Amino acid sequence: MRVLAIDTALAACSAAVLDTERGGIVGESLPMTRGHAEALMPLVARVMERSGKAFADLDRVVVTTGPGSFTGLRVGISAARGIALAAHKAVVGLSTLSAYAAPHLNADTKAPIVCAIDARHEHVYLQVFSPDGRSLTVPRLATLREAAQAATPSPACIVGSAAQAVAAAIPKTSAAPVAVDARPAPDVAWVARLGATLPEDQSPPRPQYLHPPDAQPQHAAQLPRR
């Protein structure tokens, strides 16, 4: 299977092409917190060229669906759906939290995986996985304290952009985490690998926000209609 993976959910603009039959993967990731819309399509073009594949050669497109940046998610999902539509290919969505957990589950750490993405204001987007990959909690918005409690009493592997903050919030009397991986965005290679395993008969990718946007319409400031 040939997969194009796209991730613009957090502090990176990333794309990769995976060929599962030949075992090859070509990817590129640009650290950035804004400007994904301008950077993504040139990045996809470079990765496709380096892979030696045309869009018609792809079997599917996979994209991270959040939680993450409101703008970043819309950029990535719109691009993935547009490419898939133009190339007549399937498009699937993948949780950003699952993408963070994947390499640690593959490493068989024998510890729970606590995934935490910075949601600002002392909150995180949280999901906990068992060592065998089962989801122990649904993705949700949680306080740092709640995330730290999820990482105890048994030592856990804490991953995600808020991993350091969660580790720091664990009481000194509790066991230290097995590992702390605070990379600002998931590894796009794992987005591609997981994307190759997802069923195609799911609904089109939609953003997973988990909380309303910080910016709200100012209805009181609107002029009355005539």
Helix content: 25-40%
What is the CATH architecture descriptor of the largest domain? 2-Layer Sandwich
Low-confidence segments, given as residue ranges, are none
CATH superfamily of the largest domain: ATPase, nucleotide binding domain
Structure description:
- The chain is built from six helices and ten strands.
- With 226 residues, it is α/β, with parallel strands linked by helices.
- It has two domains: 2-96 and 186-195, Nucleotidyltransferase, domain 5; 97-181, Nucleotidyltransferase, domain 5 (2-Layer Sandwich), CATH 3.30.420.
- A hairpin with a 2-residue loop joins β6 (113-120) and β7 (123-129).
- α4 packs across α5.
- The mean pLDDT is 92.
Task: Name some characteristics of this structure.
226 residues; alpha/beta; Nucleotidyltransferase, domain 5; five-stranded mixed beta sheet
Question: Which SSEs are present, and which pair or pack?
Answer:
Layout: E1 2-7, E2 12-19, E3 24-31, H1 36-51, E4 60-64, H2 70-87, E5 90-94, H3 96-106, E6 113-120, E7 123-129, E8 140-143, H4 144-150, E9 157-159, H5 163-169, E10 179-181, H6 188-195
Parallel strand pairs: 1-4, 4-5, 6-9, 9-10
Antiparallel strand pairs: 1-2, 2-3, 6-7, 7-8
